Amino acid sequence: MNILVIVRQVPDVVEELEVAADGKSLDSEFLRMIISESDDHALEEALLLKERHGGKVTVLAPDAPDIDDALYSALAKGADRVVKVEGIEGRRSTRHVAAQLAQVIASQGDSLAADLVLTGVQAIEDLDGLMAPLLAHHLNLPHLAIVTKVTVDEAARKVSALREFAGGVRGEFELPLPAVLGIQAAEKPPRYVPVAKVRAAMKSQRIDTLAAGGVSEPLLMEILALKKPEAAGHAEMLAGSPEEAASRLVGILSERGVI
Known about the structure:
This protein is α/β, with parallel strands linked by helices. The protein has a single domain (2-211), classed as HUPs (Rossmann fold, 3-Layer(aba) Sandwich), CATH 3.40.50. 29% of the residues lie in helices and 24% in strands. Strands 9-8-7-10-6-1-4-5-11 form a 9-stranded mixed β-sheet, with helices on both faces. It has a two-stranded antiparallel sheet with strand order 2-3.
């Protein structure tokens, strides 16, 4: 069973983010990049499936700062092959990235052929969660997103996936293979890999490199300005007894036309 996992780098929001001089992007000089959390869950789910069914896990990623570290970590965790796609300029929209990655996958034939394509359901800079359906569209494959459990029946060439809905509702769906799944959470937390094991992977394994082709996708949205949140005011603390505080609260609501 061949599984292809798409991973991307996103800004680490633990660090202080600064707006660049152009006013439309983040300042990359001190920006730390990490693998998207849901993509990490997609990788973990792929490794769990490999442990159950055997086969091969390939990780495909657009070139980005620190992506080599993420790919060597994937090898140390148990991935069989990692591929970096160069030529996807800047921080392009998910629509552009999905089109270019799909073109690379299709152009490589059996080299990147997969029974399952897994990717994170969303990234912190892509809250629409479009990567899985866009990839499926370009690859002409069925897809399902917001997946929390995957069960594969290789003999029947089908996959069952558990999908989360609002209100604590879950639904189980069945898709024919090959298929694309957007993973929200793996069945187990992403495994930890020691630094020594990552360094060993750096010495003994390699990152394959492919070039992105020229794919034309319409620019549907343009960032006009990017600004940090501005403090508009401060909370007013209501002192006194409960009765006095309640009276003051009613007065404030009345002054603002709420009641």
